[in-house]
Structures are given as C-alpha cells and as structure tokens.
Amino acid sequence: MATYRQRTSGAFGAVLFATAAAAVLFGNGPQRSNGKRNATQESPDGRIGIGPGSPSRPSPARGEGRGGGTRAEPIPAQAQPTVTAARRLNRASAMLAFSVLADAGIEHYRGSFENKAMYAPLAASALALTVSAHGTADARPRAHLVRDAAYGLAMTVGLIGFGFHLYNIGKRPGGFSWLNLFYAAPIAAPGALTLSGILGIYSERVRDSDPGGPPKVLGFPAGRALAVLTALGIVVTIGEVGLLHFRGAYHDPAMFLPVTVPPVAAALLAYAATRPGHQYRRLTQWWLCLTALLGIGGVGFHAFGVHRNMGGWSNWSQNLLNGPPLPAPPSFTGLALAGLAALGLMEEHADA
C-alpha cells in the first residue's frame, strides 16, 4: 500500500511538472527581436499599434489619463516590449501574492490570529493579487494609480511584517538562537510580500517609461536592474528555504534541489546584468524555466510531505498546519517569471 501511495504521489508531481512546463515554456519566454519593426504592428491586446513610420500618435480619449478608464487604444510599436515586460511582471507579482495569501492564511490561522495585525498580510496580498490580474489584462502603456497604491501597500505591509517576525524571534527565551530561528515566526517570510509589491511597482515604472528610448527605472537600465533585483530576491528565498530544510535534516534528497538549482539562476541573472548580450542568455532562460518548474513541482513534494504525516490527507485539517507549507515553493516560480521579464527587456533593448 505504501509503495502504491508513493507512486501515486510521484505521478501527481509529474503532472504538475508537465503542466508547469507548458505554461512557462510556451507562455513566458523572452521573445526574440529582429531589430526591425513595421510602421504598424499588433499590440499585446490584439489591436494595431502605430509604429515609427506614422506621422503622429492618436491622443487618448477623454477620461483615459493615469488610472482612468479601461478602454484600449492603439499604442506605439516601440512601447510593445515594455508593456509585454510589465504584464510579465504583473504575473510574477501575482504569483508571489498568491503564495503569501495562502501561506500566511494557513500559518496565521495556526497562530489563532493572536495579534490582529496578522490579518494585514492577507488583505494586502489579496489586493496585490487583484490589481496584478488587472495589470495582466491591461495593454495600455501607462501606469495606473490604483495599482501603484496597492503595490505600495503590499511592500509596506511586508516590511512591517519583517519587523513583527524579528520581534517574535527576539522575545523568546534564548533570543536569536538556532532553535528560535527554526520554530518561531519565519524570519524571511514577509519578504515575499515585499517582493510582490516591489515587482508590481517596477512593472508600473516599466509600463510608464518613454517608448522612444530604452526603458529606465530610477535612471537605471530597466532590464539589468530588474535582473539584479530578481537575483537578490532568489538569494533571500534560498536562505529561508535552506534554513527550514536544514531543520528537516534534508531527510529527502529532493530537499537539496531548492538550494542548488536557484543559486545557478541567480548567478546567471547577475552575469546577464553585467554582460548584456552574453552567449549564456539562452542557458539563463532555460535555467529560469527550470527554477519556475521547481517552484510548481515543490508543491507536489510538499503534498507528499503532508501525506507522510500521521493520518495523511485523511487528517488534512491537522497535517496542513503541521506539514511542509504547500503554498511556499511557488515563490521561486514568481521570481523566475520576473527574471524572464528582465531577459525579455534586455533582448528587445540593447541598452536596457
């Protein structure tokens, strides 16, 4: 019976891997640019945009200013790569927000919401998830005031949550000991919400950049800066995963995967930021896809970890709270999607 259950769990993980492969490899990879654009091209929402050969760009309809209505309009062909990258970042932010919403919901429920502030990350992540869905569907080359505000709230709540988690660890007997780092509030968990907000704000800055030149954010090339930001986010996530898997004594060899595969992705992204147009870009793209698959496949491994607890899934109400967190691994998927957006920007704009 045990062998049958293990095979069933393995098949479940394989299905997750295959589904994720189709979604990531065929939906989010950087698109090659041939360096030439026609006078009119199709925009990301399926409409025809006006290219460099056009005499002028139509003015937006009344009421369609920053944060205005949702009616689509033709957009310059030069703006298409930045809008595409912004929408990829909206998806990355949504993945992180969903991971936080589910994980914080379970973990804070386990803590009985003792502090009313424990509801804040649920509200902030739900709001970030909602505006990310709106941004993914929005093909206009301009930022949105409501999305900016929601992402700013998510970033702020994540930073405040980091302070709460530090306090929770420090107030325990022994302070910042290994025991408390293992079993108190996870020190880096609020960082996923902060990253969701930062990536969302970044998507709005990319979307709002000047279509006439290479996209920049705070004066930095948007693609390279995003690659560095994503690499740092991956490193922080690796630290949290490494700590918790060390607590589990790496009893399953698969537990080494999230501390061996993502570091290579972070290194390749950092190299891409310093060496635009390097020969390893295709390798970087595929390694990011592998990291994204690892995030989705990790859910299957954690589901098997829940099954291994006493009572298995028939005792789900307890084992979901005490087993490995199901919503945690997709954080790697969200960061990999952000890395693919960075590669896309650098591929479309040599100076990005």
What does this structure look like?
This protein is globular. By secondary structure, it is mainly alpha-helical. The strands form two sheets. Strands 1-2 form a two-stranded antiparallel ribbon. A two-stranded antiparallel ribbon has the order 3-4. It is built from eleven helices and four strands. The termini are far apart.
Write the layout of secondary structure elements.
Blueprint: H1 2-27, E1 40-42, E2 48-50, H2 80-110, H3 120-137, H4 145-170, H5 178-183, H6 190-207, E3 216-217, E4 220-221, H7 222-247, H8 261-274, H9 281-308, H10 316-322, H11 330-348
Antiparallel strand pairs: 1-2, 3-4
Keywords:
352 residues, mainly alpha, two-stranded antiparallel sheet, 4 strands, 62% helix
Report the uncertain regions.
Answer: 1-72
Number of helices: 11
Proportion of residues in β-strands: under 5%
Order of helices and strands: HEEHHHHHEEHHHHH
Short description:
The protein is an all-alpha fold. It is built from eleven helices and four strands; from the N terminus they run αββαααααββααααα.
